[in-house]
Each structure stands twice: as C-alpha cells, then as structure tokens.
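Onboarding guide, step 5: your first structure request.
Type a short instruction followed by the sequence, for example:

Predict the 3D structure of this protein.
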Amino acid sequence: MPITMFYTGCLSLVLLSLAAKVISTRGTTGINVGDGGDERLIRVMRGQANFIEYVPICLLMLGALELSGLGAVWLHVFGAALLLGRLMHGYAFALSEHSPIGRLGGIVLTLSVLGFESLFCVSIAATELFLK
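The system replies with structure tokens like these:
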C-alpha cells in the first residue's frame, strides 16, 4: 500500500507540526494542562484536535480503497486533496490569526474526501457483497 503509506507519512508530518505549535504555545502561555481560557491556545489545540478527528478515518478508507484495487489516480486525488485540505486548515488555526479561506477551503476539501471515499467504499463493498 505505497500510496496510503505516502500520504500517511506526509500527514503525520503535518500532525507533528500542529503538535509542536501546541507545545510551543503552552510554553509561551505557561499553561501546562487544559487551555486556561487562553484563546490562542484554544485555537491551536482545536486545530490539532480537528486534524485527529478527520484524518484517521480518511486514511483508513484510502487504505481500504487501495487494497480493493482502486486506480492510483483516484487514490492520489483523495490523498492530495486531504493533504492540501489539512495544510490549509492547519495554517488557518496554527499559523494565522484569521484565515477564513484556509479554514473554509480546508474543511471543504476534507469533507469532500470523506464523502467521496465513503461513497467509493460503499459502492465497491456493495458490488463485492451483492453482485458477485
């Protein structure tokens, strides 16, 4: 599953950068546990948490689709869109004070990948289960 491995590795680097930003912000605020009501810390924590909420299921489906034999072009479309979406969203939360385009674009790309991968998974599985 080299395509899934590639995007998993790339997205893991994004997660590392988001985690580093949370750690750095904790250091500058002196808040070691929770968010202390600090808006900047809340923002970077939510950026990391949002990543964790969406990326694992998208990667799981990408791997399932790769194992099912879905063409490499589709796999790269999904993987690249997810990576770009998470980069945009991560930038909006961790590196900028206000980036509505990054936030909106990131979530649109991420939800599109989630939706289309879901449809592909259901379609391929239904074909295997009911038409063979």
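Each response can be followed by summary notes, for example: The chain is about 85% helix and 0% strand.
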